[in-house]
Amino acid sequence: MQTPTSRLDANHTLKLLFEYLTKIASLKSFDAIIYELANMGRALASAERCSVWVVSDDKKFLQTKVAHGIDAISIPINSGIVGDAVCRGKNIILDDVYSSEKFNQNIDKEKGYTTKSMMVIPMYDNKSNEIIGAFQVMNSTSTNGIFDTHDLEYLSLASTYAAETIISAKLSSEIENTQKEVVFTMGAIGESRSKETGNHVKRVAEYSKLLALAYGLDEKEAELLKQASPMHDIGKIAIADSILNKPGRFTMQERNIMNRHAQLGYSMLQSSTRPLLRAAAIVAYEHHEKWDGSGYPRGLKEQDIHIYGRITAIADVFDALGSERVYKKAWADEKIFTLFKQERAKHFDPDLIDIFFNNIEKICAIREKFKDSYKEEAQKRETGHKIKILGAYGTKAKGFGTSSFLLSNSTVIDAGNLLDALAEDSLHVENIYLTHSHLDHISDIAYIIDNYFSLRTKTLNIIGLPQTIEAIKKDFLNDVIWPDFSKIRLPDSDDMVIAYQELQLGEEYTLGEKKSLQTIQTDHTVPSCGYIYKVDESAVLITADTYSLENIIQRVNHDKQIKSLVVECSFPSEMQELAKESKHLTAKLLFEDLKKLQREDITLYINHIKPQFLEKIIIEIEEFRGDFKPIILKDGDFVYF
Ligand code: C2E
Ligand code: SIN
Ligand code: SIN
Ligand code: SIN
Ligand code: FE
Ligand code: FE
Questions:
Q1: Ligand 2 near 330 CB (within 6 A)
Q2: pLDDT confidence of 307, banded at 50, 70, 90?
Q3: DSSP character for 287?
Q4: pLDDT tens, 445-500?
Q5: Rounded to whole angstroms, how far apart are CA atoms 153 and 135?
Q6: Which of 65, 75, 111 to mutate to test the pocket of ligand 2 (most atoms within 8 A of CB)?
Q7: What is the pTM of this model?
Q8: Å from CA of 59 to ligand 6 middle
Q9: Is residue 81 lining ligand 2, measured as CB closer than 6 Å?
Q10: Which of 137, 196, 329, 362 shows its CA 20 to 30 Å from the CA of 388?
């Protein structure tokens, strides 16, 4: 599945990043910093050459100070492949640049160099969202000679890092500030890889300084801790994505691997003699130690844990609990405070817990100031309507459920994951609206009946297009594959266990007061439909499996009641042929289609990802999403409209 030749393993990446980090943090000139950034990009992406391009102050040119083997160059901002990436804000991967009209062959000709593969990643100023330049690597040194999504991921790391460093180096002549920025950014990179928002490190930094001052450390030391604490999880850089971003709870083994991040972070930082990095090393090493000695990695106790470690522990856990993670929901304040009281003198230094509660108002003010903007959006959405995703994926795998949407206690769309998600609550389900007859959308019809047969009191209505109903009768609940429950009576009742109802394409069906469901045609290998679910004046359009989105987009463009759109993205781009044949989408195809969407206010949700390609597809969604900010659904999430 992966090409080991071009892929650096996580430990190697970590080593490289750290080597460059320490080097860059000691540099004194802008040019030298850029040069090392280019070296870092080349190493991380396994490329022959790397250029770091910077947009000129008048925004008319792209300039590079270092192109490996090439002198400084300046080109008009819209020229060449780099210009294309910068002007459109898009990542570009090309296997052979000479097949691209945009490629400017002059540089090759002049320098007697032959460029084949190329990857370009624009660099953004996080604050203004403006593009400030681009990272460009040429000629992959992997055996197949082309760049892949792993290279993209690593170069993205380098590019985030480069952007912050360049901005800070440009702004301040004071090189020390650049170093602080470098350290801070490294922390943020660790965060961004673990899908936590950048503001997490800012909040942890601010909480730490506040607690340090209140504890009695002097201003200088408190400031040092503030600068160092964002690095607490830097060791997570070395943890495999599959573990780091696992959308669920860890097994014991995964937990043990994850726990290595403390020791790893320390190993990265401990060799430095800089005060800032030394402080960061302590924080990385000791932020998971616990007051009662039950923490890791060394099981230190009480005052043996450095004060930096004890402070960061509180700051980190407070923020982690209040934030949503891939593996957990955000906790309510009350629950957090209860835990903090319980853990006084167990997990946490009792004095620091007292200080924490004495300063709770200031702490909450920091949280408010550096809150994640997505949360505001989420809050807004909480006040509207929502449906719950019982299963979000395109095939079953351990811990991953297939398509099911819970509209109300009694009504669902599709039946891929009812048994696991609802268990006995599935007894309340009376109406299953189906999008099509594929197994990952119907399978649990069989199991919820089977498991809870003796408790069922109500008929289960199986509702869908005539062809879907026909397929279920003929090929599924046919007394061969599974019993024909339309001929079997409910216990102590004259009603049958299931009844069938047929829907027409384009018809709107009333579900209850101010609630309706309308079918809309989708494009799959079997007859299929999506549903527009409307409550009051707002609606969500759920497409199930579909290849073409044309009629869907047309509908969304002129139906302003539709507030949210759920679309699929089943396969990675390299499987485009299979996607086409099985009538599914890849990220590339999806966002190609979505260019025709003229609604900026639509919230876009993505589901039906095949779990075995989850990591790859997430990276590709990031690569192709353009200005869209899609939400990738997991089991248990909500869709708001
Ligand atoms: P994190 O998400 O930043 O969490 C930092 C610390 O906050 C945790 O350290 C833990 O002390 C506390 N914390 C976070 N969530 C909870 C919670 O739901 N209950 C309680 N009681 N405490 C919580 P810890 O446990 O050493 O974990 C370190 C890191 O390991 C976490 O950083 C996270 O990145 C990862 N992690 C831990 N458990 C899981 C898991 O089940 N699944 C996944 N995907 N990641 C996990
Ligand atoms: C370009 O076409 O992107 C510029 C040429 C180069 O840097 O090789
Ligand atoms: C977990 O529940 O796995 C993480 C939080 C803890 O340390 O209790
Ligand atoms: C489906 O349409 O989800 C089943 C077929 C496939 O996975 O390609
Ligand atoms: Fe940690
Ligand atoms: Fe399907």
A1: no
A2: very high
A3: T
A4: 999 999 999 999 999 999 999 999 999 999 999 999 999 999 999 998 999 999 99
A5: 13
A6: 75
A7: 0.47
A8: 48
A9: yes
A10: 196
Q: State the closest ligand 1 atom to the C-alpha of 245, by its place in the atom list counted from 1.
A: 44
- Enter the tokens of residue 427: 């007894």
End-to-end distance of the chain based on CA atoms, in angstroms? 38
Q: Is the CB of 325 under 6 A from ligand 1?
A: yes
Highest-pLDDT range among 26-35, 176-185, 291-300, 594-603: 291-300
Per-residue pLDDT of 2-31, as tens digits, reads 333 334 555 566 667 767 776 776 676 777
User: How far is the centre of ligand 6, averaged over its atoms, from the C-alpha of 488 (Å)?
Assistant: 29
Pocket test for ligand 4, best of 402, 434, 528, 582 (most atoms within 8 A of CB): 582
Residues with CB under 5 A from ligand 5 (ion): 233
Which residues contact residue 358 at a Cβ distance below 8 angstroms, ignoring those fewer than 6 apart? 214
Core vs surface per residue 21-36: b (16+ CB within 10 A) or e: bbebbebeebebbbbb
d(CA 141, CA 553): 42
Q: Which domains does the chain have, with CATH numbers?
A: 10-171 (3.30.450.40), 192-375 (1.10.3210.10), 386-640 (3.60.15.10)
* Coil, helix or strand at residue 433: strand
Token output for 428:
């309340």
* Nearest residue by C-alpha to atom 4 in ligand 4: 438
d(CA 533, CA 508): 9
Altogether, the residues listed in the chain come to a count of: 641
Report the amino acid identity of residue 317.
Answer: V
Atom of ligand 2 nearest to the CA of 104: 2
